[in-house]
Structures are given as C-alpha cells and as structure tokens.
Amino acid sequence: MVVKGKEGSEEKQSVSPYHLVNIRLFILFRVLFNARFYYPVFTILFLDYGLTLEQFAVLNTVWAFTIVLSEVPSGALADLLGRRFLLVVTAWLMIFEMAVIAFVPAANPDLVFWAFLINRVLSGLAEAMASGADEALAYDTLVVHGLAGQWPRVLEVQMRAQNFGYIIAMTLGAVVYDPSVVNRVLQWCSVNVSVSQQMSMRYPLYLTLILAVFALFVTLRMRDPSPPAGHRTRDPQKATIWQLLRLVLRTGAWIIRTPMAFTIIFFAMTIDHTLRMGVTLTSKYYRLIGLPEASFGLLGSLVAVVGLFVPRLARIMVERLSFGLNVFLLGAGSVIALLFLSLFVPYWGILPVIAIFVGLMLTSYFTSHYLNELTDSQQRATVLSFKGLALNVAYGIIGLAFAALMQHYRVVQTGLHPSQAVDFIEDQAFVATVGCFPWYLAGALILTSLCCLPRVWRRRSTGRKQ
User: Where does it mainly reside (predicted)?
Assistant: First the structure.
C-alpha cells in the first residue's frame, strides 16, 4: 500500500522549506512547547509541594479527560478560525499554567491543590489546542509553496531539534531542582546565598515559564498560509457553533468512509497506546532490573540522544518503503521489544526500553506523514485532532486495564506466596502484568489488520482514487 498525496506532483525542490518563516517557527514552537524542565522530577514535584499520591493521580486524570474532551473541538476551531489563532491561545495557556504553580504559596495545602488543578486543566487545553494546529499550519505552508513533498525532511529536523531540547531540559531541570547542587554552584561563584528545597523546586517551573513567553512571541510571528486555489476561505467572525459541529461530523464521516485514513489512525492507536503504557512504567521497571535511581535521568538523556538518529531512519523508510511494509516492520518490532521487556533482564533490560522509545517516534513520524499527505487542507487540523483523540482514549483504556490486571495478579501472588512481604507481591504482580503486553499488542494488531486491511484492498481493487 502506498499513500498518494492530493496536493499535486510538481514540487519546487530548488527552494528549501527552511527558507519559509512558518516552517522555522513551527520547529521552534515544538521545541519550546515540549521542553519542560520539570519532566525529570514530575512526580516528586507534586509531592514536594505537599500533595499526596492520590491527589497526583486525580490531577493527572483531570488532565487526561481535559485533553479527550477538547481534542476534536479545538481541531475544528483551528480549521474554522485559523491555526495561528489557536497557537497564540495555546502559548497564553502555557504561560498561565506555569505561572499558577510557579508562584502559588506552598504553605496552604488546599490552595496548592486548587492551583495544581487549574494547572492540569490549562495544560490539557494547551495540549489539545496545539495538537494538530501547529502541524496543519506548517504542512499547509508547504502546500501553498509547492513543497508538500518536503514534509518528511521537515519532520526529521523538527524531531531532532525537539530531542535536543529534551536533552537540555532533562539534564538542567534535574540539576536545578537539587538544592545541594545549586548551593555548590553558588559557592563556586562566591555568592553567599543558601537555597532550600522549597526554593529550588520552583526553578524548573520558572525556566519552563520563560520558554512559554518565548513560545508566545513565536506564535505571534506565525501567519496562516493563503488557501490553495479553489479552496473557500472562512470568515472567522462568522464562525458558529453549528459550523463547528458540522465540520466535526463531516470530518468524522470522512475518516470512516476513507479506508486509508481509518487504517492509519487505527494502526497508530494500536501501537501507540501499548508502547506509551510501557514508557509510563519505566521507573518501576528500571528498579526491577537493578538500575540505581541516580541513573534514571542519565537514561532519559541517553534515550533522547538515540532519538536524534530516529527521524533520519523514519524519513528513509517513508521514502523507500510502502505504507504496508512500514506498518509490518513497526508492529513486529514493537511486539519483539515488548517480549524482551517482559524478560526483565538485569541491566541489559534497558535495550528494549530504547527500542520502545524508537517505536513511539516511528509511529508519530509515520502517522504525521501519511495522514497529512492524504488529508485536505480545510479539515487537516480536525483530522489530526481525531487522531489525537483516538490515541488518548486508547491510552486511558489501557491504563484502566493495567490497574485491573495489577489487582488481579496481586490476589494471585498473595495466594502463591502468603508469607512474602507486600513489596515482593507488588513486584511479582508488576512482572506478571508487563508479561501480558506483547501478547496484547500482537492480538490487537491482528484484529486491526482484519478490520482495516480488507477495506483498503477492496477500495484499491475498484481503482477509485483515495
């Protein structure tokens, strides 16, 4: 299967896409928006502010539901009101979400909880609004200039730049969070100031807030590209709720009626949510394969370094191999990685973790390339938002399934080892649950293939143009 674009075959290959201001700003926005300095200390940041693990779980559930509820409407708004408008709003939301927890007094636990609740809602809205809008703006910019075929190269540079930002954020964020490190640096600089944990825990937030301000300046410089010839333009002042609903329904119907679009989203959903669940559990997994906690930040940076080379591999694959072969290689490789992950090999178990991160990056790259190539400009952001919705709903479902399996295996392991400590039972339940991952993904891929591929083959056999 090969996806053929609808944007025309003539490309102005002599013009570099990086000469276009929107493309440079798109890459810079992705770096600024995703380089969160608090990521390496995400969980303990909540706890050091005085929140409990239960509150942490509730707050992140709120974040996930906010994304799910606003994903598709925000994509439709981007198509109706303009992608730049949504990205400017996204940058403002990022500023507010960081400011509300960066400056909240930590002495009042109730106030801290409400501040973090507001942060999670604003963060979810920002994630949903950025999802699809920035990509649609960048891709349509290429289409207008006859450079749609350069999208794989733009994706390659964007993902590599984002990984550079991730490396810096992971390293610097963990360093400034540790008051002992900050104090040693201050002493070396002959600054007679002592920093406490209550002070240093805000430093990653301040740094991310600075990036949010820069992200706002970047979005203000963006411009919505002029629509291709023959495309109707919409007046943002006349956009109504009915237009929003009609665009959402029309786009959803188009995805269902278009076998290739449906197949791309379903395969992405199947692979992404399983691998993402594995990534979520890396801290616990590292402990069980004997890696010290001090190495976790370094391992995150190692994964980011490997990620610098993945976009080039992904571009070569989409340029030289068919869609079907790429999906087969990605699916088979993901199942094999999860099989090795489930073995919990001491120390060397880091290798399947790296393979899982590579699989996630390939999934993101393939989905962006094939779906943008297939989608019309007027509904591009909405289609990408449907994709984001599918991925997040599936991730939420597998999270619930993981919790249910853990509870089941706790009961089983308690019956098998009634005299063992609670920690031992918990570890054995975790090992047994992770052992289900490869078989789950293999079964899900088979079902997805049976559901999607016959429709694609029937459509191809009729000779109708996708």
Answer: membrane
Q: How many residues does the chain have?
A: 466
- Name, in order, each residue with C-beta under 8 angstroms of 356's C-beta and a sequence gap of 6 or more: 275, 278, 279, 334, 337, 338, 341
Question: What is the chain's percent helix, strand, coil content, to nearest 5?
Answer: 80, 0, 20
In the predicted model, what is the mean pLDDT of residues 18-22?
Answer: 92
Q: Are 102 and 205 in contact (CB under 8 A)?
A: yes
Burial class (CB in 10 A: 0-12, 13-18, 19+), 120: buried
Q: Where are the alpha helices (DSSP H) in 321-379?
A: 323-341, 350-374
Q: Which residue has the higher pLDDT, 82 or 33?
A: 33
Quote the pTM value.
Answer: 0.77
pLDDT band (50, 70, 90) for residue 5: very low
Shared domain for 211 and 254, answered yes or no, is no
101 and 131 part of one domain: yes
Per-residue tokens: 178: 């540790």
Distances (CA, A) of 178 to 48, 99, 453, 464: 12, 21, 52, 61
Q: SS3 for 147?
A: coil
| 176/255 same-domain check | no
| Whether 218 and 246 share a structural domain | no
Three-class secondary structure of residue 63 per DSSP:
helix
Is 2 domain-assigned? no
pLDDT above 80 (res 232): no
Q: What whole-number distance in Å separates Cα of residue 48 and Cα of residue 256?
A: 46
Question: Do 132 and 258 belong to one domain?
Answer: no
Distance CA 361, CA 311 (A): 8
User: Is residue 129 assigned to a domain?
Assistant: yes
**Separation in Å, CA 168 to CA 176, 212, 261, 298:** 12, 16, 36, 11
Q: Judge contact between 179 and 196, C-beta under 8 A.
A: yes
Among residues of the chain, what percentage have pLDDT more than 70?
Answer: 90
Task: Give the per-residue pLDDT at 220.
Answer: 96
Q: pLDDT higher for 231 or 272?
A: 272
Identify whether 236 is part of a domain: no
Full domain range(s) for residue 155: 18-222
Q: Do 268 and 407 reside in the same domain of the chain?
A: yes
Residue 12 domain-assigned (yes or no): no
Is the Cα dihedral 337, 431, 438, 267 positive or negative? negative
Cβ neighbours of residue 77 closer than 8 Å, sequence gap 6 or more: 86, 129, 239, 244
User: Residue 275: which CATH number?
Assistant: 1.20.1250
